[in-house]
Write a structure and sequence with these properties.
InterPro entries: MCPsignal_dom. The chain is mostly helical. The chain folds into 2 domains: 3-140, no CATH class; 240-473, Orthogonal Bundle (Helix Hairpins). The protein has helices spanning 3-32, 38-59, 63-83, 90-93, 95-104, 113-130, 142-300, 308-344, 350-385, 392-485.
């Protein structure tokens, strides 16, 4: 239903009310007017109102209802003018025609003014001829009829133009309203579509964010697991490194103490070797002295012929003593060999070489005492040689043998001295190596300590990294929860 139709539907009640009001007005006018048949006039007015009402019920606000209502409403005005025939108000009742014409504009149909104007014109024209007093109080007046007709036409034209303009405006407004409604509906549809698109985009965005969050969580979880596993491995390795460094430091300390003790033992052996070399030097001197004494004895043997027998006995004693010296020399050779063996193993058992060195010293003392005995016997031989001049030739052979023995002893002593010097040199080299080993062990101990400190720092860093990894996992979980809720 358009705005014009809605307005006509509301106006229908107005025009029906006007018709029935006119019927009531005719009843009152019949009492005031001078018409001869007021009851018939009232009945006619009621009939017009009733007929129009029936048509309205049957046809609604259609064209027929509009035309009939325009004619019947003006017909009631005609009856009202007739009722006031001969009354002073009859001329005034003509203004009601103009009022009803203005009321009929409520139908918003200029066509209703055509039959209405024709009806008014016919009423005035016919009654001015048939019953002039029914139109004007003074009877027939064609000029007045013409004037009223012109006025009615002018009003009808003005009302027609006004109604047409108003209807066009309403129709334009209706069109614009429909267009606005269509635009509003289009806007609503666009808004709904935009909302749906926005919602769909939001759902897609949410799904995309959820997928991104799931993928991110999966990747971060894998990385976090790898980091945690690496941290645990790093912590275990640092603990093992720290334990190994502690053990190395302890063993390096023990090795340093052992090396220091070994160095002390090597120094002691070096001192003992030096004393042994000194003893062998003294022995060499004594052997040289013995050789010289034997030479002197040989030179004097020519004058000891008288005591040749005694010299022979003493020479035999000297031979025994020289045998003892030979035995001692052999024993010294064996001991020197043992000392060399012990020197090769001095790093593990230095005490054995000390015993050997002491034994060598003891044998050297015995050799010294034997040399003293030889010296005594030589002195005895020297004393007896003065009486053994005749046995000088025999003694020469014996003294020659003694010279050979002395030379052999000197050779052995020289060899022992050389061996002792070699041992001393090797022991000194071993001492230097021991000192160097002690320094290296000390460096190893310091490095082990530094390694332990570094391992402890790595362990602390691993613990801190573990805590930071846990914090990172918590922050990532909260971030993913916010993304999923967005």
């Amino acid at each position: 239903m358009t705005d014009v139709e809605r307005f006509r539907a509301r106006f229908a009640y107005v025009i029906i009310a006007v018709l029935w009001s006119n019927a009531v007005l005719l009843a009152f006018a019949g009492r005031l007017g001078r018409a001869n048949n007021p009851d018939q006039i009232v009945a006619a007015g009621i009939a017009l109102a009733a007929f129009t009402t029936l048509v309205w019920w049957a046809c609604g606000t259609g064209w027929i209802t509009r035309q009939i209502s325009s004619i019947t409403s003006l017909g009631q005005v005609m009856l009202l003018v007739y009722t006031f025939s001969g009354h002073p108000y009859q001329s005034d009742m003509h203004m009601y025609f103009f009022a009803i014409l203005a009321v009929l504009a409520g139908w918003l149909d200029w066509r209703v003014f055509v039959p209405a104007s024709l009806a008014v014109a016919a009423h005035h024209a016919v009654l001015s001829v048939v019953y002039p007093l029914g139109v004007f109080p003074n009877g027939n007046s064609f000029d007045r009829v013409l004037l009223h007709a012109v006025i009615v036409v002018v009003q009808a034209l003005a009302l027609s133009w006004t109604v047409a303009s108003l209807r066009a405006a309403l129709e334009t407004s209706e069109t614009e309203k429909q267009e606005a409604t269509a635009a509003r509906r289009a806007a609503e549809d666009a808004r709904h579509e935009a909302a749906a698109t926005t919602q769909e985009a939001a759902q897609e965005r949410k799904a995309m964010l959820y997928a991104v969050a799931e993928d991110f969580e999966h990747k971060i979880a894998g990385i976090a697991k790898d980091v945690i596993a690496s941290v645990r491995t790093l912590r275990t390795a640092s603990q093992q490194m720290q334990a190994g460094a502690s053990e190395v430091a302890e063993r390096a300390g023990a090795a340093f103490l052992s090396s220091h003790q070994t160095s002390s033992n090597v120094v002691a052996i070096t001192n003992a070797t030096s004393e042994l070399a000194t003893s062998f030097g003294e022995i060499d001197k004594q052997v040289g002295k013995t050789t010289r004494i034997v030479g002197a004895t040989t030179s004097k043997a020519k004058t000891v012929l008288a005591t040749v027998n005694h010299l022979s006995t003493k020479a035999e004693d000297v031979g025994n003593i020289v045998g003892m010296i030979s035995t001692i020399a052999e024993h010294t050779n064996l001991l020197a060999l043992n000392a060399a063996i012990e020197a090769a193993r001095f790093g593990r058992s230095g005490g054995g070489f000390t015993v050997v060195a002491q034994e060598i010293k003891t044998l050297a003392n015995q050799t010294s005492r034997a040399t003293d005995e030889i010296q005594g016997q030589i002195e005895a031989i020297r004393s007896s040689s003065e009486d053994a001049i005749r046995a000088i030739d025999a003694m020469n052979a014996t003294i020659g043998s003694l010279n050979e023995v002395s030379a052999a002893v000197a050779t052995v002593v020289e060899q022992q001295s050389a061996a002792t010097a070699g041992i001393a040199s090797n022991i000194q080299a071993a001492a230097k190596e021991t000192v160097s080993a002690s320094g290296n062990i000390e460096i190893v101990s310091r490095i082990a300590t530094e390694t332990g400190d570094a391992a402890a720092f790595v362990a602390k860093s691993a613990d801190r990294l573990d805590r930071q990894s846990a914090d990172l996992g918590l922050e990532v979980a909260q971030f993913l929860d916010r993304i999923r809720e967005a």
